[in-house]
Amino acid sequence: MTFKVNQHKKSMASSEILTHLIFLYGEDQAPQLLDRAQKLLDAYRPRIQMRDGKLTEHDSILITYGDQVQSQNANPLQTLARFCKQYLAQVIGGIHILPFYPWTSDDGFSVVDYRKVDSSLGNWEDMFLPCKMIFV
């Protein structure tokens, strides 16, 4: 039964995304773009830990820039992950890293490329170190 429900939700989400893609790119390009997006999602989905529930008032989330905790021996994201694992594992439910993409100004909010991690912070592998990262 759970499989059917998940498949139905996935189908509904795909339909909604297709509607937006048609609006943005037209009926000719939208199906190919949806297929491409679905392949990307399927490739990354195994790397994202599934939560057993939604965020509630009992959750605490650390919101931080990626370079707020630094050391000489590792890049900032690795250092942040090590710090959180050592000091915050039993305290916070996840980490929201403020813009970690390459940027030009506005403290990271003028993003240049949403597909990359700012090299001064680390790389995509560092974003999936063993601590709960939450992307919103």
Protein model, in words:
With 136 residues, the protein is mainly α. The chain contains 4 helices and 2 strands, in the order H-H-E-H-E-H. A two-stranded parallel ribbon has the order 1-2. It is globular and about 50 Å long.
Topology:
Layout: H1 2-25, H2 30-44, E1 61-64, H3 76-88, E2 94-97, H4 124-127
Parallel strand pairs: 1-2
Helix pairs in contact: 1-2
Poorly predicted segments: none
Overall average residue pLDDT: 82
Alpha-beta classification = mainly alpha
**Termini separation:** 29 Å
**What portion of residues belong to β-strands?**
5-15%
Global outline:
globular
- Number of separate helices: 4
- Can you list the strand order of the major beta sheet? 1-2
Could you give a short account of the major beta sheet?
2 strands, parallel
Number of strands: 2
| SSE run | HHEHEH
Rg result: 18 Å
Q: What level of helicity do the residues show? A: 40-55%
Question: What distinguishing features does this structure have?
Answer:
136 residues; mainly alpha; two-stranded parallel ribbon; 4 helices
Summarize the structure.
With 136 residues, the protein is mainly alpha-helical. It has helices at 2-25, 30-44, 76-88, 124-127, and strands at residues 61-64, 94-97.
